[in-house]
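ok new one. same drill as before - structure tokens go in, u give me an amino acid for every spot. 138 of them this time. try not to just spam alanines like last time pls lmao
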């Protein structure tokens, strides 16, 4: 596991009546909100696969996708911000991928979502001693 930085890929899934332009606008709104955290970078995601005819490779933006680069300590804050931001937006969900692990935000109650985020972050963090457990050198 890379302890220096975490790279999160966010994929916004619009409601049935959300078009590509609105989805991109929502992604840009979320990008601005994420930049208010102390993350290293938030970029619009690049579409994988074959670029449309006439487009230069690597220039095609994936609609509704963001890539967040941050220190691991801020992953929980990023997930919580996305979860809070998602409410009252015309989106079904936001899928977040980190090193092959994914979490889908938006399909649960606020309390269930909080527990889901806590469990996801806990599984990605190095084990820390429980309270009351002697530390080396104590």
């Amino acid at each position: 596991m890379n302890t220096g930085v975490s790279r999160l890929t966010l994929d916004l899934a619009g409601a049935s009546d959300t078009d590509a332009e609105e989805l991109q606008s929502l992604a840009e709104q979320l990008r601005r909100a994420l930049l208010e955290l102390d993350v290293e970078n938030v970029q619009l995601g690049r579409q994988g696969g074959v670029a449309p005819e006439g487009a230069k490779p690597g220039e095609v933006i994936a609609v509704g996708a963001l890539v967040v680069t941050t220190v691991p300590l801020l992953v929980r804050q990023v997930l919580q911000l996305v979860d809070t931001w998602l409410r009252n937006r015309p989106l079904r969900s936001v899928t977040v991928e980190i090193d092959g692990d994914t979490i889908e935000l938006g399909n649960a109650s606020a309390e269930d979502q909080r527990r889901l985020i806590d469990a996801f972050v806990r599984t990605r963090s190095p084990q820390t001693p429980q309270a009351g457990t002697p530390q080396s050198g104590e």
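The chain has a mean pLDDT of 81. and btw The first strand starts at residue 6 and ends at 14.
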